[in-house]
Structures are given as C-alpha cells and as structure tokens.
Amino acid sequence: MAHGSKYKVAFRRRREGKTDYSARLKLVDLDKNRLVVRISNANVIVQIIIIGKDGDETIVSAHTKELQKLGWLGGSKNTSAAYLTGYLCGKKALAKDINAAVLDIGLKPSVKGSKVFAALKGAVDAGLEVPHGDSIIPDENRISGEHIAEYAKLLNEEDLKKRFSQYLKRGLQPVDLPNHFEEIKNKIDSEA
C-alpha cells in the first residue's frame, strides 16, 4: 500500500494568481482570436492574441502610452482611457484583417460597467465582432468622462486643484474631458 501525501501542488502561475487554467482551457478549445484586456496599476493594455505552436502569439497590441503619444492628457487607467485603448486596438485589428475575437479578462472579476468592459466597448465600436451582452457595458457618459466633468463643476477652486492635480499638471481642465475624449477618438479614426 502506497503512503504519501494526497496534497497536490498547484501550478506556479495559479499559485501566483496569474492564470486560471480551467478558463484558459475553454478559450484554447475555441480556437479563435482572443481580445485580451489587462489593467495594471498605471495602464491599460488591449491585445489580440492567437494560440500558436510555441505558445501565445500577440498579433495586435494597444497600450495607453500610445494614447499619450496621440495627445491624451487624461488619466492612463480610467474608463475613458480603457475605451480609447480598446478602440485603438480594434482599429489596428481591422487594418490587419482581424474581424472577430472572444473576450479574455483573465483573473479580473466580471463586474458590470467595469474598465474591462469599457475596453470591450471600444473594440466593438471600432468594428471588431466580440460576443457580449449590452447590460455589462458602462454608460456612455462614464466612457466619455461626462461624469468627471459634472463632478468637477461642483468643486471650488481649491478642491479642484487637490482632486485633479494630475489633469491640471498635464494641461487638461477636468470639465473639458468629454471634448478631449472626442478629439482623441477622432485622431485614432484619422490615423487608422
């Protein structure tokens, strides 16, 4: 009779909280392009990834740093930035004849109206076909930053400088965020 531990050590990436292998296995079986959305503490990254013989291959990638090169003065990880990064990735994908993908949010919880779904909405608005339900998408005024502009209008000068110091340092008045959002979206359209 064999003696030993019945405990099985989980894969390293699972222990580190980086990979959900059961979800990944389902995505691998689909054999479709994946729209991968990753949100870090400072940036949003949206990629189209396929499964190659030697592992995953990134075909298209968009990063909030690219938005900053286009003149984006808003935050680099807010809902507006997530949408614009998804939009940029969608435009790049269409330029490479990639028309469809399935959403891969990794280990992020599926929360209605979250930044992950703002990035999804951006990719879909760019023309990429990604299966989803409209109930999970954030409101248009959240995506365009309208709620930030409305909030900024309620603040006095001192509170405005305190709460929006980074926007002001970059030269953007928070009340101008919705217009700035549209400018950058139009710039992505003109360059795609």
Brief description of this entry?
By secondary structure, the chain is an alpha+beta fold. The chain contains ten helices and four strands; from the N terminus they run ααβββααβαααααα. The termini are far apart.
Please explain how this structure is put together.
The protein has 10 helices and 4 strands; from the N terminus they run H-H-E-E-E-H-H-E-H-H-H-H-H-H. It is α+β, with helices and mostly antiparallel strands. Strands 3-2-1-4 form a 4-stranded mixed β-sheet.
Pick out its properties.
4 strands; alpha+beta; single chain; 192 residues; 47% helix
Please write out the topology.
Blueprint: H1 12-15, H2 21-30, E1 34-39, E2 44-52, E3 55-63, H3 64-69, H4 79-95, E4 102-104, H5 115-126, H6 140-143, H7 146-154, H8 157-163, H9 165-170, H10 177-191
Look at the helices and sheets and give the structural class. Answer: alpha+beta
Q: Largest sheet at a glance?
A: 4 strands, mixed
What does the average pLDDT come to?
88
What is the chain-wise order of helices and strands? Answer: HHEEEHHEHHHHHH
The portion of residues assigned to helices is 40-55%
Largest sheet strand order: 3-2-1-4
Q: Calculate the terminal CA-CA distance, rounded to whole Å.
A: 67 Å
Report the portion of residues in β strands.
Answer: 5-15%
The coarse silhouette is globular
Segments where pLDDT lies below 50 for 5+ residues? none
* Gyration radius, in Å: 19 Å
- Please provide the count of β strands: 4
> So how many helices?
10
